[in-house]
Specification:
Helix content: over 70%
Structural class: mainly alpha
Mean pLDDT: 83
Shape: globular
Radius of gyration: 19 Å
Distance between the termini: 26 Å
Low-confidence stretches: none
Strand content: under 5%
Order of helices and strands: HHHHHHHHHHHHHHHHH
Number of helices: 17
């Protein structure tokens, strides 16, 4: 850790908050189509499965961008990179709001993917350069709380805005947020010159570690299970549960609240009980998704299962990154790059595979498939992760 870049206590906390808001804007931009999938598809005349490409494409691009952006900009000031990436996100959201065809919409999603890969890989591991050592754990949990906050605030608010004023308005609001965060990063972050230059050799060394292989396997299975199913939760709640669009927004809000709780519970558990926390998260996701086709036909059943699901998935990103960091404690940026790349690649594959199952069979069938994968992940994690 570089001691020269530590900010004053208050400024350091504000800088961490600005990073959290940056990831919040990114996560919300990435997963907002979940709540607006039907509206976007209706506007462009595409099916739910095809519209799911708006979720798949950013993940594919982010998986490539994570190592590419990090390696090519390894010697640049990290503050400059983060500010530039937020500007790219603002452009992406404006382009989505103004899209005149589905292809233009997909171009905007490519830019979102570029931002995800670069910002996450660079920003997610910066807590140690902004706050004192004793506060790094809490600061990291705050940064990662942006993931469930994107679900609890971003997606429901964006979905509600889309219902009231059109889905394009929701993306325009995100563009404004991205610009505000860009200004905050510019003001609050101290200069962050390259502290540890990540090279291809360092990445390869981390990839060869046994702990990394196990973390990759667990992350692949649980993220594939989650995004193969959650991408299509709105069609499920509309068509199977029979909720109104406004009710779907409310249910997604409840899911997000549970996710925030899961994030902080897992953050505490990963320091001493990582295997147990990761295994429980996968097991609960399996239980929720396998039960939805049978118990999700009523509003009460669907809400109860989504609370369990949200609580479980809220801990997944924290557990996954902790597993990668434990495998490479001396190369935190390299570990974060591999975490980001693998997470986003599987995110994309899950959304794509889920779309194929939805179009070929039904939205209930994809829940069962995801549940089986999550169950396998729980078993693998319990047996292999130490």
């Amino acid at each position: 850790m570089s001691t020269t870049t530590l900010a004053r206590p208050l400024v350091g906390r504000l800088a961490v908050t600005s990073l959290m808001l940056g990831i919040f804007a990114i996560v919300t931009s990435e997963i907002l189509p979940i709540g607006l999938l039907t509206a976007i598809g209706a506007d462009f005349g595409t099916s739910d499965g095809v519209t799911g490409l708006t979720m798949t494409l950013p993940g594919i691009v982010a998986a490539v961008a994570a190592p590419t952006v990090t390696l090519t900009t390894a010697r640049l000031d990290r503050r400059v990179m983060l500010v530039a990436l937020m500007a790219v996100l603002a452009v992406a959201d404006v382009l989505a709001a103004a899209a005149t065809s589905y292809w233009v919409m997909l171009v905007s999603r490519v830019l979102v993917g570029l931002t995800i890969g670069g910002f996450w890989s660079i920003g997610a591991g910066l807590a140690g350069r902004l706050v004192p050592p004793h506060a790094v754990g809490t600061a990291t949990a705050v940064i990662f709380s942006a993931v469930p906050l994107g679900s609890v605030l971003g997606v429901p608010a964006g979905t509600l805005m889309g219902d009231l004023a059109g889905w394009r308005t929701a993306f325009l609001a995100l563009a404004v947020l991205a610009l505000l965060v860009m200004a905050a990063l510019l003001v609050l972050l101290p200069p962050l010159p390259a502290d540890q230059v990540t090279s291809p050799r360092v990445l390869l060394d981390v990839l060869r570690a046994r702990g990394t292989v196990i973390a990759l396997a667990a992350t692949f299975l649980v993220v594939l299970a989650h995004f193969g199913t959650y991408t299509y939760i709105s069609p499920f709640l509309l068509d199977v549960t029979g909720l109104t669009p406004a009710a779907v927004s409310a249910v997604l809000l409840v899911y997000g609240v549970a996710g925030i709780g899961g994030n902080f519970l897992a953050g505490r558990a990963t320091t001493t009980r990582l295997r147990a926390a990761f295994t429980v998260a996968g097991g609960l996701i399996a239980a929720a998704t396998l039960s939805l086709p049978f118990a999700g036909g009523t509003a009460v059943g669907a809400v109860a299962l989504l609370v369990v699901w949200g609580l479980a998935y809220g801990g997944v990103p924290v557990c996954s990154q902790a597993a990668f960091m434990a495998a490479a404690p001396r190369a935190p940026e390299a570990a974060t790059v591999i975490f980001t790349s693998s997470f986003q690649a599987t995110f994309a594959l899950g959304a794509l595979a889920g779309g194929r199952v939805v179009d070929a069979f039904s939205v209930s069938a994809v829940m069962v498939c995801g549940g089986v994968l999550a169950l396998i992940m729980a078993v693998v994690t319990f047996v292999k992760l130490r």
